[in-house]
Write a structure and sequence with these properties.
mainly alpha; 2 domains
Amino acid sequence: MIHQHKFDELYRDVGGVYRTTVLVQKRLRELNRGARRLVTSEAKNPIAVVMDEIDQKKIDLVEDNDENREAIRAEVERLTMNQPRAAELDPTTDEEEAERRILNALNKIR
């Protein structure tokens, strides 16, 4: 069981209920699509896992702007350095399919 005080701490740390909710939802989506956990946790509840990741400063909600997009691209390049080049996506590939393929490829190199 997750206690309310834990949520209150996260709301304060992340910057409010809305930001925390968005961060939790986005991370749950990644975990449900096969991303690996970023913390060692015995928790079976995925929300508790995400809360642990937030608490241990493993994830954060970043503003969607050009600077952050460039930082993310640079991090992906760093993580995939010396890896075989991925095949280009067909222009008709939808965003969810592209995201699924990217997460699968990243999981294979870790």
